[in-house]
Design goal:
Laminin; extended; two-stranded antiparallel sheet; alpha+beta
Length: 178
Amino acid sequence: MAKPQSFYLVCLAFSLVFNLLLIFKLYVGREWELSWSRRAAEEAEYVAAISCSGHGKAYLDGLTLDGKEPVCECSSCYGGPHCSEFLPGCAADAGSGDPLFLEPFWMQHASKSALVVAGWHRMSYTSADQSYISAELERHIRKLHAIVGNAVTGGRYIVFGCWLNPTSQCCSSCTVFP
């Protein structure tokens, strides 16, 4: 008679633990769900799906129509609302260094190259150690130059230039000085 009773106790204990986990997920689990990053990804996907005839792109932070819908920003020699109109007499600048030829590769690898950065991410111009460049970024810059072999970084300072504020940590120049 002890066996069935212990079996029922184990089932009761399991049921209680399982129900507590479900209640915990119901009331506390929402805090673990993505919120702003999920919305940011959905907005980026929406804008990326805007068709610009293969001769332009719409950007989430780009031009808008009446402050609402993002519009196509056309490549050189194309115009119109969807970049489908070829502009005759247009001179293409082959020496500009614009890396648009890499675009198909990055579009194929969109999920591996996507970045989501919160607007408040590293808003200060300095880090905790009062430097203008993070130790991790400096380490990666030195590693990159060592792999490529285009600069000697040992015993040198890294001078890092960025846009107006560090929120958009986009490198405008990265030079190694003695």
